[in-house]
Amino acid sequence: MTTLTRRTLLAGAAATTALAATNLRAQPDIMEAPVDLTGTSILITGCSSGFGKLGAEHYARLGARVFATMRNMPRPEADELRDLAIAEKLDLFVIEIDVQDDESVMAGVAEAERINGGPLDVLINNAGIGLSGPVEVQDMEATQMMFDINVYGCHRMARAVLPGMRAKGSGQIFQISSQLGRVILPFTGHYSATKFALEAMSEALAYELVPHNIEVTIVEPGGYPTKVWVNRNRYASELKARAEQKHLAGYPAAVERMGTEDGSGRTADPMDIPRLIAKTIALPAGTRPLRAPVSGGRMAQLAINEATRDAQLSWLGGSAYGPLMRAVHD
Questions:
Q1: What is the DSSP letter of 152?
Q2: Which residues, 6 or more positions from 3, have their beta carbon under 8 angstroms from its beta carbon?
């Protein structure tokens, strides 16, 4: 049973550092401090742009062996990362993985483990999509696609890496969620639904993996100016074009905005997320936070995170599940 209290072994200053690392605005020095990831193997999904691409470059420059994955290869984005690896002599490999495809996931992870010479240290489930619009307008094609990428894709990836991590007796999984995985806005209901599901699945996974010394951190970004907005508009435009008028008619203003949203006016630095993840990887085992909010502005989910933690421990902290839950939350 000693593994159930592994997080209490490194208390005091180390735990304080872990908590500070979850609040970008309050502790910018934490994000800027140097990190050495030499000897760490990291697999990232969704590396064609945004947090995934920036992260792949950042972790490799910090010394990690990085497996940057993306779908629909060959593609220019894959060539750019390969060229960068050659130019800067980075330990960076590009592998094709489509998180919607079971065989692609298993083959891609197996290839990364083969190159690595064994199980991976870190999985970053970054691949995801956004799709705006009223809940009624979301047809089953849109609904299934969003859940298949944002939820089932993360599940496929976790199942693929976990046997190796468990055999090794250590590992880390980062799930890229969102502020909207804890708070809800009108006309983003399906996106929030996928991220709420990811949050719940990831917290349960964190409890279950305590005996195996594998940690889960749920990263909760605010809005950042990445290519996600371009893809979001494309998916929303396609949805609007095929939607039936009987569904569109109830929400004229919201429907008019579908496919026209512009995230370019956002000024937050997308590198916040790779820096936060790198700092979290470098923390001592047993001190990494379950949730890591990060934003250039308000973080409305902080109060929700605290309230749900307290509710979980108040309800089940004294039960048979208590040791697992306290190992994650305390």
A1: I
A2: 210, 211, 212, 213
Give the tens place of pLDDT for each residue, 82-107. Answer: 999 999 999 999 999 999 999 999 99
Structure tokens of 203?
A: 């917290």
Q: What's the number of domains the chain is made of?
A: 1
66 forms beta bridges with: 42, 92
Give the burial class of 83: count Cβ atoms within 10 A of its Cβ; 0-12 exposed, 13-18 middle, 19 or more buried: exposed
11/270 Cα distance (integer angstroms): 31
What is residue 122's three-state secondary structure? strand
What does the angle CA 68 – CA 70 – CA 73 come to, to the nearest 5 degrees? Answer: 115
Domain that holds residue 30: 2-329
Which of 93, 83, 86 is closest to 113 using CA atoms? Answer: 93
**DSSP string covering 73-111, please?**
-S-HHHHHHHHHHHHHT--EEEEE--TT-HHHHHHHHHH
DSSP string across 18-38: HHHTT-TTT-HHHHHS----T
DSSP string, 219-280: EEE----STHHHHHHHHHHHHHHHS-HHHHTT-HHHHHHTT----TT----TTHHHHHHHHH
Separation CA 293–CA 283 (nearest Å): 16
**Residues noted as catalytic:** 48, 177, 191, 195
Rounded distance between C-alpha atoms, residue 27 and residue 23, angstroms? 6
The pair of structure tokens assigned to 65 is: 């062996």
pLDDT digits (tens, 9 = 90+) for 233-266: 899 999 999 999 999 999 999 999 999 876 656 6
Q: Is the whole model's pTM more than 0.85, yes or no?
A: yes
- Residue 183 neighbours by CB under 8 Å, 6+ apart: 192, 300, 301, 304
How many angstroms from the chain centroid is the CA of residue 214?
16
Q: For the domain that residue 145 is a member of, what is the CATH number?
A: 3.40.50.720
Unique residue bearing structure tokens 């990362």: 81
Which residues contact residue 105 at a Cβ distance below 8 angstroms, ignoring those fewer than 6 apart?
Answer: 97, 98, 99, 153, 156, 157, 160
